[in-house]
Structures are given as C-alpha cells and as structure tokens.
Amino acid sequence: MDSSLPATQNPPPSTLGASDYSAKDIQVLEGLEAVRKRPAMYIGDVGARGLHHCVYEVVDNSIDEALAGFCKEIRVVLLKDGSVRVVDDGRGIPVGTHEQTGKSALEVVMTILHAGGKFDKKSYKVSGGLHGVGVSCVNALSDWMEVLVRRDGKEYKQRYERGKPAGPVAEVGLSPADAPHGTTVWFHPDRQIFETIEYQYDLLLNRMRELAYLNKGIRIILSDERTGQTDTLHYSGGIIEFVSHLNKNKTALHPVIYFEKDFDHSQAEVALQYNDGYAENLFSYVNSIHTIEGGTHVMGLRAALTRSVNDYAKSNKLLKDKDRSISGEDLHEGLSVVVSLRIPAPQFEGQTKTKLGNTDVKGLMESLCGEALRTYFEEHPADARAIVLKSMNAMAAREAAQKAKDLIRRKGALESSVLPGKLADCIEEDAAKCELYIVEGDSAGGSCKQGRDRRTQAVLPLRGKILNVEKAPLHKLLESEAIRNLIMAFGTNFDSDFDLSKLRYHKIIIMTDADVDGAHIRTLLLTLFYRHMRDLVDRGHVYIAQPPLYKVKAGKQEAYAFNDAELAKILASWGNPKNYHSQRYKGLGEMNPSQLWETTMDPATRAMLQVTVEDAMKADEMFTVLMGDAVEPRRQYIEKYAKEVQNLDI
Questions:
Q1: Does the annotation count 513 as an active-site position?
Q2: Is 171 helix (H, G, I), strand (E, B) or coil?
Q3: pLDDT tens figures, 191-231
Q4: Are 384 and 285 in contact (CB under 8 A)?
Q5: Confidence class of residue 40 from pLDDT cuts 50, 70 and 90?
Q6: Which residues constitute the domain of residue 372?
Q7: Which residue in 146, 162, 426, 586 could disulfide with 458, CB within 3.0 to 4.6 Å?
Q8: Are 441 and 517 in contact (CB under 8 A)?
Q9: 116 and 164 inside one domain
Q10: What's the average model confidence in pLDDT over 227-250?
C-alpha cells in the first residue's frame, strides 16, 4: 500500500483484501424490512402502478376465497384520508395459534413472507396472488394497516404500523348477524415509500371490472368517498359478457362461442367472437392473473382454432385449392377472445407473471378446445361458415399485402438503408440516444430542422393526414406513401414482420399543432402504432410533444404557457399586470426555430408525455369508438364530453 495515502482516505477497491470483508458485513433483514428496503422487487415499482398493485394484492385474497366457493361480495372503498378498505364475506383469516410460530395465524399471515394457506391445495385448490408474499408486502409498505376478522361468531382485530404489530390479536366483540364471516383489510400507503399516494379511480375500476368478468356471479362494489362515485360490477354471464363488451362498438359475425371444460383439478373457460374489423383482441388469464404475454394456454387455444377451422373448411369444400390451408395468422383478424384458466400449480415466467410456462397445458388446451370447437361447428354450420369466410378474406388480404411487400422490397423501399427523402436524419449512430420528431406539414418541419440538435434529433414532416388503419386491410397500408415513409424511417418493418431490435430511434415524438387537425393526426398515428407496431407503445418508445399554447410578455418579462391555467398562474406571479401581450400559437409553423428549440425540443426544458397502455381493453375500446366504422358510439362520446373540450378551433 502506498505510504503516501492519507490515513482518512479509503483504499481503492483493487487493494481491498479478504480481511476487509468479514462476518460483521453480513446483514440480516428481519421480518418485512427487506420489502421496505427494496419495494420494487415485490410490487414492480413505487410509482402509481405499484401503489395500485397494493390494492390488487388485497383484493386477490378475496378473489381466492371466491374461487374456493366461499366469497360472494367484495367491497373496495377509497377513503378521503387516502386509505383503502377492502371488505369480503369469505371465511375470514384464521386467528387461532399457529403451531410452528406460537403466534396467531392472522399475525403470521400479515407479517411473515411466504406464509399462507395456498401451498398444500387443501384450503385453496387454485389461487392467484404471490403465494404468501402479497398481503404481507402491502402491510410492510403501509404506514398503518388494520385487519378485522369475522368468524366463529366473533370479531378479531389487529393493527400494524409499517408492518409491525401494534399489539396482539384481540377479540373485540360478536360478529353481526348480517355479516357473520369475512375479512376487512384497511390500510394507508406509506409516503416514505411511494412517489404518489393518490389513487386513480378509473385504474381500479378497470381491474375490478376485469375480476368481475372472470369470476361470474361475484359482486364487486367499488366506491370513492372523495367524489361520491360508486360502481357495482356483477356479471352472471362472466367472460361471455366480457367478449360482448369488447365487441360492443363493432359488428359481430356470429353469437359468442363459449365453452367450459374441467380437467385434472383444473378448469378452462373460453369465449370468442369474430367481428368485421381487422384487429385482434385477445385477453388471457390464469387464476384471474392477466398473462399479458400469453403462454402455453394461449398456444394450445390457437393451435386448436387453426386446426378446427381448416378441418371444417376442407370437409365442407370451402377452400377451392385443397392444398392450401388457413394459417393461424389469418385467424387473428377480427377475433375477440378471452381465455381463463384455473390450475392448482401455475408456473409463470418471471416475477411479473405475464406468461404461463406449464408445458403440459398446451396439449391439454389444444385437445379440449379442439373438441369443443369441432362440436360447435357441427351444430352451428352458419357460424362456422362465417368464421371460415372471414379467415379466407384475411388470407387473401395477407397474400395481397405480401405481394405488395415483395414488390416494395425489390425496389428497396422498406430496407433500412433506404430512407425517405423528407427525413432530416441525425448524426448519432447509437439508437438509444436518437430521437425522431414526426411533425405536421413542411412549415413546422422547416422550423424543426433548423432548431433541432442535429447530433441526436431527426425530423420527418408529414403532408396531411395518414390513412385510418382502423378501417383498412393490411395491403392498403402499404399503398400509403406516408405510412411507408414512417416504416422506412423507423427501420423496423411492421405488423407480423415488425422487429423492435432494428428501431433506429428510441424516442419517437409526435409533434402536431394544438388544434383539431393536429389532434386528429396524432390519433391516426397512435392508431397505426397501437394496431401494427404495438411494441413501440408497450416498450415506451412513443412520446407526445407538448408545445406551448401562449407566449406572454409584460415589460421585460417573457414566458410561455402550455394552457389557460398556466397563463393565469404566470400573470398572477407577475402581479396581474394590466399591460401585457399574449400570443396564441395556432401552429408550430408560427414559432421560429429558436423558440421551437427552447420550448419543445430542448431536452433540458421541454415537456413530453410518454404514451403507455395501462389498460389494453380501454385503449382498444377508445380506438374503435374514435376511428371505427360505427357512427353512433362516436356521436355518444362527443355528446358526453363536448363540454370538457378546450381550445377548439372553429
């Protein structure tokens, strides 16, 4: 060691010896301390998503009681103080002494990780949740929690503070006659943990609605004491009503096909219906957990559907060429389907549980679904014929699109080395550092090109409005020069050929005027990305620029405002001067390059919205309402929200 090294300075890492790392350096986090230390490991993140996930974990315990046949009603209440109360009429968490720990079973469940009644399959044949991690994690991440258990004619209560019992489980009275059994969990999220503790009613409503669809007959009542809003969710038809909801603004080609099969202590439910649209809506679940990435249960269903439709088409001579087959891809178009699987031992890929990995499930699902579909097709030939004809039309469109792609490829128009002429590219070669601004018109494009940082920012102007892909078959997309230019600029190709690894810009920023036309162009672009380049949205690559609406000056003071409220706030901070001048920008082209850089393109000062899909079902519904063929739903939407419109240019 260098003798000149000051005594107070730590030695560099390369000089540390084995003696510097000893037993005293090993930390043991007791109880729920590990959860508080690394909360994102257990709930995903500490933002809005993780905050709402805590509610889902508590409700999932009640849903498990419903799956076991003991719970009929769940109440979720958002209280004015920011806390949440979840009440169910299940059996109630056991409160007797736990032999292994000597503590009340209630305290064990609420304060010890991996403790619960879901491991031996006696109390619960199937369950979701995190197998003993969920509710104890919520307890750890709450500044306080209270649990009230009603069972055996009595009520028991225990309070916790940041995961630690404030006292023993206490008997507090007799169970009321109208609610003899059940569990109430009341908790307040900890400000020390979460970035926000403000619950969004709509997010919770979407998940509660989903759970009500998946567990037919259960009643979930969500209420918000902050606003007085209440929704009762009860669907006796279960996922049949779910699929009907998905297609409510579309033209269905046949009634909902539904079948339910039991196998090996498990249960599979499938509901599907084709519509006259071009998009697929597939929602898959395992034990009420949304498997966003699908898995073996979805693979089995798809294989069964492909085989059953082909068998019917060939046996009824609907395919003119006996050597041709309808592909699985052809069966995606216009399909709305919900598959719900309940199994005792699900094997998920990853902690987030977005994909089922049980290898035996694929074969079982393929066999069960194939048998059910063949029977249905034999009994309902008109419905089977409608599905075959729909898939044959999709096959013809796919083949036409493939020919168009091949023609374009021969010309080199979709190759990543060929870029559209109007694209002003950036110098940087690292895609992670690159941004692409999609701007409205040549005028705004000119200002953007002059004002940008040429090292990392590229600009692609669009002339007019792109094709509405919600109403167009696949091959029509490739006839649109604007869409081809976007595909070429991204470098990813699109639809089934989409390859995210080839994306040339990791930030794709939509920058349109703050008027009706600008909003329409933005919606058309988002529809294209959502329907045919979904990974761009799911992986967080799409942004919406937020150019200012006003420039205001008073004397030597000058500022930009993004809306009327901000304008009023700026003026108030200036003492509400009487002699001020404000300019409302009708378009980006009215800004000179330096203003556009300063307000909208400078990473140090700009404001942008990242486009995310928190609820795919709601997003699909909105795209269908706004961009689909049906006029009536769009008229109703406009009538409902017309009074909330601001800055409407006439």
A1: yes
A2: strand
A3: 999 999 999 999 999 899 999 999 999 999 999 999 999 99
A4: no
A5: confident
A6: 239-403
A7: 426
A8: no
A9: yes
A10: 94
Residues 450 and 346 in one domain: no
Going by C-alpha positions, the residue among 104, 138, 197 that lies closest to residue 146 is 138
- Nearest to 460, CA basis, from 495, 499, 505, 517: 505
Considering the chain, what is the average pLDDT of its residues?
85
In this structure, the answer to whether residues 218 and 306 fall within a common structural domain is: no
Q: Which of these three, 181, 208, 233, is where a domain ends?
A: 233
Q: Are strands 457-462 and 435-440 parallel, antiparallel or unpaired?
A: parallel
Cβ neighbors of 457 (< 8 A, separation 6 or more) are 426, 434, 435, 436, 437, 601
Share of residues in the chain with pLDDT > 90 (%)? 48
What percentage of the chain reaches a pLDDT higher than 70?
85
Cα 536 from Cα 527, distance rounded (Å): 12
pLDDT band at 473 (very low <50, low <70, confident <90, very high): confident
- Amino acid, single-letter form, for residue 477: L
CATH of residue 386: 3.30.230.10
Q: Are 111 and 132 in contact (CB under 8 A)?
A: no
Tell me if residue 428 is catalytic: no
φ/ψ bin of 121: left (φ > 0), alpha (ψ from -120 to 50), beta (otherwise)? left
Q: How many CA atoms lie within 13 A of 265 on its CB side?
A: 11
**pLDDT at residue 362 greater than cutoff 70:** yes
Residues 399 and 334 in one domain: yes
DSSP H helical segments within 231-290, as ranges? 239-246
* Helix (H) or strand (E) run with residue 101 in it: none
For range 457-465, the mean pLDDT: 90
pLDDT at 9: 43
Number of domains in the chain: 3
Tell me if 378 is assigned to some domain.
yes
Task: Check 225, 260, 280, 517 and give the catalytic one.
Answer: 517
The string of pLDDT tens digits covering residues 376-398 is 999 999 999 999 999 999 998 88
- Going by the DSSP 8-state scheme, the letter that residue 176 receives in this structure is P
Does the structure show a pLDDT above 70 at 27?
no
Residue 152 lies inside a defined structural domain of this protein? yes
pLDDT of 93: 92
Residue 465 maps to which CATH number? Answer: 3.40.50.670
Token pair, residue 187, equals 């908790």
Q: Which of 233, 258, 286 is the last residue of a domain?
A: 233
Please report the beta strands in 425-555, taking only residues with DSSP state E, as ranges in sequence order.
435-440, 457-462, 507-511, 542-545, 550-554
517 inside domain: yes
Q: What is the dihedral of CA 623, 629, 632, 637, to 10 degrees?
A: 20
Cα dist from 596 to 373, 414, 435, 580, whole Å: 58, 31, 15, 22
Among 17-21, 82-86, 179-183, 354-358, the minimum mean pLDDT is found in 17-21
In a domain, 423, yes or no: no
The CA distance from 541 to 308, in Å, is 38
Which is the catalytic residue, given 311, 383, 515, 566? 515
Question: 253 and 316 share a domain?
Answer: yes
- Give yes or no for residue 401 having a pLDDT over 50: yes
**440, 470, 620, 621: the active-site residue:** 440
Q: Is the pLDDT of residue 84 over 80?
A: yes
142 & 253 share domain: no
Residues 85 and 140 in one domain: yes
Q: What are phi and psi of 560, to 5 degrees?
A: -115, 145
65, 224, 366, 513: the catalytic one is 513
Q: What are phi and psi of 269, to 5 degrees?
A: -125, 135
